[in-house]
Amino acid sequence: MTVFTVSPVVLGIPGRPVDLQLKVSAPTEGSGLPIILLSHGQGYSNHLSSLNGYAPLANHWAEEGFVVLQPTHLSSRTLNLPAGTPGAPMFWKERAEDMSHLLDRLDEIEKAVPQLQGRLDRTKVAVAGHSMGGHTASLLLGMKTEGVSLKDDRIRAGVLLGSTGRGDGLTEFVRENYSFIVTSDFSDMTTPALVVAGDKDASEHLTVNGPEWHTDPFHLAPAPKDLLILEGGDHGLGGVSGYDVAETTDESPERVAAVQRLTTAYLRSQLLGTADWQQEALVGVGFGVHSRP
C-alpha cells in the first residue's frame, strides 16, 4: 500500500517549553483507519530519539493501514533542553502527556494534514514504544510511576518493545539518576499489551536482572498480556529504530520483519477484531510466544 508522511506537524501546548512536533505516516487510501501512537526511545544517536526515528516500524504500520503519530518528546537529544528545565532529563510524565495531547488535538492534526480528514477511527487507538518509549506506553496503559496514574482510556492496546521492568533490578547509576523507574508499579496496567523482548538484551546500563527484566510488564501486569521473545535479539530487536543507528548491535532484517509482521497481526486483532494473531507465529521461527488471557 502506498503511504505518505507529513512532518513536522506543530502543536502549541500551553506550558510546554517548546511546541510539540510530530510526524504523521498514513496510507494514501482507505477510511476508518486505526491510530498508533509511537513513542521513541532514548538512544544516543541524535535523530533516533525524535520524530525522525523508527522508520522500519512507522513505515510498515502505515503500509498495513494504520495512521502512525510520532512526537518528539522533550527528552529528545534534538531539542537539547537545559538541564534545569522542569522534568529534565527524561521528562517521564511529560512524555506520556504528549501522547494524550495528540488524541486531544486530532481535529488540528487533521486540519494540518488534509489527506487525513474524515479518515480516522478515533475509537481504535493503540500505543507503542521502544525502551524509554516502552515506559511511556506502559504509563498510558495503566502502569503507575511515583504513585501517579497517566492511563488514557482512549487507548485500547499497547506494544512494548524492549521496555523497562521492575524497580528493584536497576543499576546503581539508574537508581541515582532516573529514580522514577524505581517506583514502577504494573499492578493496575490492565489494558491489553504485547511485550516484545530479545533474549540477548541484557541492557547492563539499566539493569542487573539480565534479559528477563524486559519481560516484567508481561509477568507483573494483569492479564490479558502476550509475550514475544526474539531469539538472538539485543536491545535494538534487529533494528526497529533504524538499521544504521549506533545502538543497533544486532542488525537483522529478518528479525525486524518478524517484529513488523507479529506486531501488525497483534494490533489488528486488538483494534479490528481479526483472527488470533498468534497464528502468525506459526509461520516463522526464531521467536517464542506466551500468553496470559
TrEMBL record:
<feature type="domain" description="AB hydrolase-1">
    <location>
        <begin position="36"/>
        <end position="187"/>
    </location>
</feature>
<keyword id="KW-0443">Lipid metabolism</keyword>
<dbReference type="InterPro" id="IPR029058">
    <property type="entry name" value="AB_hydrolase_fold"/>
</dbReference>
<keyword id="KW-0442">Lipid degradation</keyword>
<protein>
    <submittedName>
        <fullName>Chlorophyllase-like protein</fullName>
    </submittedName>
</protein>
<dbReference type="InterPro" id="IPR000073">
    <property type="entry name" value="AB_hydrolase_1"/>
</dbReference>
<dbReference type="Pfam" id="PF12697">
    <property type="entry name" value="Abhydrolase_6"/>
</dbReference>
<keyword id="KW-0378">Hydrolase</keyword>
